[in-house]
Amino acid sequence: MAASVLVATTAEVLAHPELDEGMLAPWEQRRLAHIRVPGRRDDVVAARLLLRLCAALVIGRPPREVYPAQLCPGCGRDGHGRPYLPGHPGLGVSFSHADGLAAAAVGPGPVGIDVEPLERRPGPLTVLRRLLPEAEVDAAGAEPEPGPALLRLWVRREALFKAGRDDARLTGWTDHRRAAVVALAGGGPSVTGPVDGAPGRSPLGRARRGPRFPRASRESTCWFDLRGVAVGEELGDVSGCPEPVCRR
Predict the structure, then answer these.
(1) Pairing, β 170-175 against β 180-186
(2) 186 Rama class: left (phi>0) / alpha (psi -120 to 50) / beta
(3) Which of 22, 80, 84, 110 is most buried, judging by how many CB atoms fall within 10 Å of its CB?
């Protein structure tokens, strides 16, 4: 089974005719009430809706009949922690959002996805060395253009963190049209697919055969033909939870 990966702008997701905020579960709606910045709230809504659309491609159900959940392995409480799809223990799911972007991935085994605006610059180096492998930070910092190199490193490491394993297959690409950098960890061969089963149709609009992105391995060819970009977890207030994923 291949992974389904969707990347879009927040505006594209919110304008999608099959998606609306009323699809979110009550616990998700309660978390939205604590987000004071309207733009960030829209990003969170878009990412959670995009995850439903992405899962619909894989399990063959309408987006309205997809009910993602979250469970923390540290404190045992639901409503935060890594997302999962009840009734589908073999599938991994992940979503991300950042400044007008949203992304989602659903596929076999552990899956992690991250998206960041192309112009974002993580740092400073002293902080990055405490958060990421120091050798990788130093190597990226020594690149002719260290800013973009450090951003690529950041999204790759975030994707691995969300997948929960450092040895997951990694695929990274830049969506210049949406000014976004994206990384996918795990999930096997990555493809996009139609919601309605009609060949050649994109879930977010009229399909175009997208560019072929770098392969994660000889067996993994990634195609992305959507009209949008970005994914991640909105973890809310979990300050009392000891699990690291809940403090991100």
Answers:
(1) antiparallel
(2) left
(3) 80
